[in-house]
Amino acid sequence: MIELAELQRFWRLPVRYFFQRRLKVFFEQLEAPLEEFEPFSLDTLHRFQLRDQLLAHFIETDDSPQSVQDFMARQRGQGKLPLAYFGELTLDTQVTVIRDMYQRLTPLLAAPRPDLELNLTLPTALGEVQLQGWLNRRYQDSLVRFHCGDLTVRHQLAVWIDHLCQCAMGEAVPSTLVGVKETIEFSPLSKGDVLAHLQALVEDYQNGLNQPLTYLPSTVGAGIKARDGKKGFDNSDTGQDKALKAMRDAFIGGFNPGEVQDPYVYRVWPQWHESFGQALLATGDRHLMPMLAQRQKR
């Protein structure tokens, strides 16, 4: 039996799951040094946390000016905003971003539906497997997820897995992922297609328990982005060459840290080489191409 929560956790970063769940090995992550001075701006983590809290506040109340003032007063009282004018400026910027997201999200939250219990039997190369769990945040027109940041491949795949499970249980409705810059919707599929995609995801989960699965979401995501142009998805030889270059850059890093700097990734794949890139591309395409075929951005 596989819990849906475990399948989701695996696909966030399979190599980390292998070390932590299979080998019971945990590598230390470097912690950021403590600030010596009062901050005048928010780092990425604190900015995301502020956005998350602000969106939750809007959903609980509304996005009126008074609601914003109440939120600011609470954040100031807890010492979570930069000093003086910088705190107000920081919050004003985030209010603009989150208000747009909130206004796109609110219509989707009408008429909540009960959580759906998941209980599926899937055939795999290792025999039948029970996939069990619960699907929440279901509403009249859609299963809804949201993230107060960019909608990366990691976030999209998580919603795609929930979407497949919902369709497999006979719920032929879309699934929607709302981010700060865009909204993504996945359309329903036939049960046959759904079960085939879930089987592939579960089989690679099983394989990834025995050895690290060659799948790195940030690196693979860079390859998807390199091929995803205004004229459609370019899966030609030229497009794949672009994908491999973008993946190499994302893996190694430059201005931003590369995915190789994750201690779990580095322990298995300390260097980039062409066959490694091809394996990443193949695994990513196997699972993400079906997802992209059902994805609409708006």
Task: Considering the chains and any ligands shown, give keywords for the structure.
298 residues, Arc Repressor Mutant, subunit A, 3 domains, 4-stranded mixed sheet
* Helix percentage: 40-55%
- Number of strand elements: 11
Range of strand content: 5-15%
Structural class: alpha+beta
Main sheet makeup: 4 strands, mixed
- Mean model confidence by pLDDT: 90
In the residues, how many domains can be counted? 3
- Total helical segments: 11
| Strand and helix order | EHHHHHEEEEEHEEHHEEHHHE
Could you say which overall geometry the principal axes of the C-alpha atoms support? globular
Q: Separation of termini?
A: 37 Å
Write out the strand line-up for the largest beta sheet, numbering strands in chain order. Answer: 6-7-8-11
Radius of gyration: 21 Å
Poorly predicted runs: 31-42
Task: Give a verbal description of the structure.
The chain has 298 residues and is of the alpha+beta class. Helices cover 52% and strands 13% of the residues. The strands form 4 sheets. The protein has a 4-stranded mixed β-sheet, sandwiched between helices. A 3-stranded mixed β-sheet has the order 1-4-3. A two-stranded antiparallel ribbon has the order 2-5. Helix 3 (44-60) packs across helix 5 (84-105) and helix 8 runs antiparallel to helix 9. The protein is globular.
